[in-house]
Amino acid sequence: QHQFRGYGGREQEEVLGLVVMKVLVGLVTLVAAVAAVEPYFRMPSPYTYSCIQEKCIREEFNSPTENKQRQQQDQQKYTTLSECSLVCGQYGSMWPRPSGDVTLAPETTPFLPQNIRFTKVSASNPQVEEMLQEQAHYFQRNLHFMHPDYRQRDKEPFTEYQEEKYRKADREYKQSERRFRGDRFEDENESVARFDLFELSSKLRRQNPESQSQSNRQNFESQFRNQEQRRGREQMRYERISPFNKQQASPIAEKRSFEVEVTVTGPETQLRIDTDESYDLAVQTVGDTTTATIIASTYYGARHALESLSQLIAYNELSNSLQVIKTAKISDEPAFKYRGLMLDTGRNFYPKEEIMSLLDTMSTNKLNTFHWHISDAASFPLYSQRQPQMSYYGSYGPSKVYYPQDIREIVEYANQRGIRVIPEIDTPAHAGAGWNFGEQEGKGKLVLCNDPEDVWFNMCKEPPCGQLNPVNPEVYGVLKNLYSDILEAFNPEFVHMGGDDTSFKCWTNSPEISNYLTQQSKEVNSRELFELWNTFQTTAFAKLYESVEETGVSKQVTPMVYSSSFVKNYIDPKDYIVQLTEKVDSTEIQQYIAKGYKVVFSNTDIWSLEGPAPSWVSQASTYNRDAPRPSWKQVYENSPLDILTGLGVQNARKRSDPSQLGQQTPVDQVLGGEALVRSYETDAESIQSTVWPRGAALAERLWADPIPTPYQADRAESRMAAHRERMVNRGTRAETFQPEYCFQNQNSCYTQEEYQSRQEKNEPLTQATQA
């Protein structure tokens, strides 16, 4: 009242009105802020879960049966299946299971993904630190994806961070262009691939590592230590649209903090065949703070550790929060160095984003090798700067071409996910599209048996046919150009040269071949055609290494080839790695081991993830497939070392003594394995359901290589079901392999055969299940 003394009635009313307006605005703002947090309600569940013999057994709350079982087993009761799955059994819901020591506490604690802080990141160089920074974002993104209300269409490949990195590289490039290019830059093409810009920024970092390291550390701290500042426009998109930011959660979860500490001692930024991928992970909860500590020799081990940490976390529908195992300790490393997936993009084209999604799920499963079968007789989608005619004539269309920028982005994305990329240009067979430009440009016939008017099954296994002309010298010049391009684009450790399905029918019926052999006073018979293949492969091998020398990109490149009778007779074990495509029971596998080859297993009867159906163009037996496509359990139980043991190879699981230099045992020759997707009947719309979850079964076989035991795959079934759900939550369109009922009632789904077997052996059905 004193404040308004001396004012007339009208002035007083205006002032009072202004005060009332401000109060109303404040109330509206408060109501809007409260309304921005969506209420959360879910029906309670009448069920509880107990971990009995590594299965989460569901019972009604306080039912007599449940009380009896818990008294007998002395098991803790869990209110949700997700909580029980996290802690039940030796490995909880981890996939692939660790190969070393694992300790998991039987309790969890709630938290929100917004409360995670990376409080320590210790790396030996700025590049490793930057890679860890991106992986930390990726880790957090996957935690937000765990919320069931996160929209599936928003779960795209994580390129948001890469785009910002490339923009930063672009700025650095423009600031330093004259220093590196001088006045010549003005005369050159100014469109530079984003990956090139990133490479240039890396060069700048190497020139001034001290200042760059300090800059990176400051940037990392601003990204993670100052979490309270990461709101609004500073948030990543996955955070802004996350239901965790929009819905109410348990007050207990809101006050809990989660700190992550990462130490990487090694400087490696490129995955090699001998890279140490091991890690140690410890989780400890004291009061309201959970701390995860990761120690690894390389970035790749630390990346695997973050993946394992994410698998110690699950969504809790009752508290609308996440939950993490209170205490855990894991020491882990892979059993095999090579854990791969082959994708054919020649028969069907896959957009870049779909390949990146595939890489994401591969990293979830700790697979580390993407074998890219780029071309086939049907199409040549790779743009070659030295030989642009190949994609001009050979692609399915201008939009279905992988340009150098696409390749480099995929390779960079894969490396960030802990995956090497192996390019393959299959020769001399599976070559057709693109190679038909030769006659138009005066190079003669580069490819044979590619006339669409010819009856295809007289020449090859599938249409279209096509096989390189080994007696035309121009072929090898084109091959060298292609090798140079892929070396520059991929910077690979391995280059796959193909070598499978060479057709003698094609060469026998080609006038070019018969005329050549006649001029050499040779007959057209099997022995001469074998020699012709050897001449081709020897020349192609030489051209590859000429490209290695001239490009100077890769310090060491090792070629790979598919197994065949040609390989066994001509290929030097010191020069090549052989990809074994023989069936599981083939005695030829033993012969490769006896001759000293280093091998990668890809048994086509088990690890080919799609089976050509008779409805396409031929019977399945044409493709070495006389059985339906394998189940995930068949994929899981296919062990390379057990195959060797079954074929009579001595000491198949015994590793060589490190003190005995030069000594090699069979297990040292087996680099690992690879599943195959040849895209006969798979494309971008069906690739994920074709690969997953069977590709995950392959991943655990190659990461942990569990020793065969009765009901081995059955015991892993509940973990596989939980992992399949995890992949789906991250946006993977994984195929289901059982009704959800079986996951929620883990002692109820079994076959008649299993029931009878267990009755005869007096074993409880809760020990394992089979859907």
Automatic annotation (TrEMBL):
SUPFAM superfamilies: (Trans)glycosidases, beta-N-acetylhexosaminidase-like domain. Its EC number is 3.2.1.52. Signal peptide: none annotated. GO terms for cellular component: plasma membrane. Keywords: Glycoprotein, Glycosidase, Hydrolase, Membrane, Signal, Transmembrane, Transmembrane helix. One of its GO terms (molecular function) is beta-N-acetylglucosaminidase activity. Residues 209-226 have a biased composition (Polar residues). The keyword Transcription does not apply. Residues 202-312 form the Beta-hexosaminidase eukaryotic type N-terminal domain. InterPro entries: Beta_hexosaminidase_sua/sub (IPR025705), GH (IPR017853), Glyco_hydro_20_cat (IPR015883), Hex-like_dom2 (IPR029018), HEX_eukaryotic_N (IPR029019). Residues 336-704 form the Glycoside hydrolase family 20 catalytic domain. Residues 204-235 are annotated as: Disordered. The chain crosses the membrane at residues 15-37. The keyword Glycoprotein applies. It catalyses: Hydrolysis of terminal non-reducing N-acetyl-D-hexosamine residues in N-acetyl-beta-D-hexosaminides. GO terms for biological process: carbohydrate metabolic process; glycosaminoglycan metabolic process. Belongs to the glycosyl hydrolase 20 family. PANTHER family: BETA-HEXOSAMINIDASE, BETA-N-ACETYLHEXOSAMINIDASE. This is beta-N-acetylhexosaminidase.
